[in-house]
Design brief:
- It contains no helices and ten strands.
- The radius of gyration is 13 Å and the shape is globular.
- It has strands at 8-12, 22-26, 29-35, 41-45, 59-61, 64-66, 73-75, 92-93, 95-98, 101-104.
- With 115 residues, it is mainly beta.
- It has one domain (4-104): Rieske Iron-sulfur Protein, CATH 2.102.10.
- A four-stranded antiparallel sheet has the order 2-3-4-8, with no helix packed on it. It has a three-stranded antiparallel sheet with strand order 1-10-9, with no helix packed on it. A three-stranded antiparallel sheet has the order 5-6-7, with no helix packed on it.
- The structure holds FE2/S2 (inorganic) cluster (FES).
- FE2/S2 (inorganic) cluster binds at residues 48, 50-51, 53, 67, 69-70, 72, 85-86.
- FE2/S2 (inorganic) cluster (FES) binds at residues 48, 50-51, 53, 67, 69-70, 72, 85-86.
Length: 115
């Protein structure tokens, strides 16, 4: 059984269209909520590390989210940019889908090391 005590319910998973990122705000933090074409749900910081641009306005390709401004692609599982000009990661947020609802841990983390 999934542990949801640290998690915040966001919305039903069916409310999120595949490859159409949503910008949500938890506290003061903007978060890009993304469902990939294969149905995986991810959440990363919604502020490009290269400039103050919403990544949710960008493009999903596979498990990446591309910033529309200058084209950096961020890995949705690690928050790391895979292409320049961005070189700093954005936070990633733990996501669970429980009984058809999306839950997010509102404490994002910066992944700095290869897993
Ligand atoms: S603002 Fe995102 S790549 Fe430049």
């Amino acid at each position: 059984m999934a542990e949801t005590s640290d998690l915040m319910r966001i919305c039903p998973v069916d409310d999120v269209q595949a490859e159409s990122p949503l910008r949500i705000i938890i506290g003061d933090e903007p978060i890009a909520l993304v469902k990939t074409a294969d149905g995986e749900v991810h959440a990363i910081g919604d502020r490009c590390s290269h400039g103050d641009i919403s990544l949710a306005e960008g493009f999903v390709e596979g498990c990446t989210l591309e910033c529309w401004a200058h084209g950096s692609k961020f890995d949705l599982t690690t928050g790391r940019p895979l292409t320049l000009p961005a070189y700093e990661p954005v936070p990633v947020y733990h996501v669970q889908v429980v009984d058809g609802d999306i839950y997010i841990n509102p404490r994002g983390e910066i992944v700095t090391e290869e897993a």
